[in-house]
Design goal:
The structure is a homodimer.
Chain A: H1 8-15, E1 17-27, E2 32-44, H2 50-59, E3 70-78, E4 84-97, E5 100-105, E6 115-121, E7 127-132, E8 136-146, E9 149-158, E10 164-174
Antiparallel strand pairs in A: 1-2, 1-10, 2-3, 3-4, 4-5, 5-6, 6-7, 7-8, 8-9, 9-10
Chain lengths: ~180, ~180
């Protein structure tokens, strides 16, 4: 990809907005396919916001180090059980180097506990996030195809990290606002 | 990912074998999901093989420059029409630099004509292939999660390159031989 290398601020900036998401989940052991259609909204939050301050405090991190915190909300429907799931998560990047840092979350995807992940941005502007939970590890890659289309691959592994349990893929299209 | 950076020889070497593939295709305009289960086999071919020599000749490329040619065969079933599709393609890498080169194919995925793609391997050992056809462009990324699991994301774009028509994701698990 041509152009400048992105830092986390640029990546979050391009993510702000409403996205229509098609997500396919591959449950590898059973070769089962699950299809989820959802609406995702990414909204910027002030670093001074009380929720950001509180999350930093929980993790003993100075809120001065926070860059581009945001809230992600989603509402989706799976073809597996037909149930509508919805949720909201606060995500707070804390850079430790130019293209690398920690990502605090008040809730994870794989579990509902607060989580800290390690992120980095590759040379070709792919955002990579690794989060270790008690009994699982999640690895996520997000990259933009153009301003209005992005792809996301998420892997849930056993905590040892060797076995992949589910692999999922989302294609996300930005909605005109 | 820790460890040495891979060249095309290493990448092909790790791909040799039989793979069980789950592939999800997102037809973006219609938000349609298609699920394909297939068996993929990757077999090494000698650079001296007559088919390799012939493909090089077609493209006016010296076969001395060929590294690790291989044949890919697949047989799959889609949940869209239930039909079984199968095929075979000869792929011939021709490096132009350490982590970059051309990939000759006797047949493409998107069209059935011979094609030349441009490949490169990123710092984190992702294989990226861009192929331009008359009316479309295909972009493919393949990376290994571990020795036995790999992921593949393919995008088919309009030839201008701005519009993404389909995005597909495969999770591939190596079968014990």
């Amino acid at each position: 990809m041509a152009g400048a290398r992105w830092d986390i601020q640029e990546f979050v900036h391009r993510s702000i907005g409403s996205w229509r998401s098609q997500r396919s989940v591959h449950h590898l052991a059973f070769a089962h396919f699950e299809a989820v259609t959802s609406q995702i909204t990414v909204t910027a939050v002030s670093p001074q916001d009380a929720r950001v301050q509180e999350l930093c405090q929980v993790h003993g991190i100075s809120s001065d180090r926070v860059v581009s915190p945001f809230v992600m909300t989603w509402e989706g429907q799976s073809d597996w059980d037909g149930e509508i799931s919805q949720g909201e998560s606060l995500l707070v990047p804390v850079p430790t180097a130019s293209y690398r840092g920690k990502l605090l979350r008040d809730k994870g995807y794989a579990e509902t506990m607060p989580a800290i992940g390690e992120y980095y941005l590759t040379e070709d502007n792919t955002f990579v996030l690794v989060t270790l939970y008690d009994r699982a590890a999640a690895e996520e890659k997000i990259w933009f195809i153009n301003d209005n289309v992005r792809c996301r691959v998420s892997l849930i592994k056993t905590s040892g990290g060797s076995g992949v349990v589910t692999a999922s893929f989302s294609s996300e299209i930005k909605q005109k606002s």
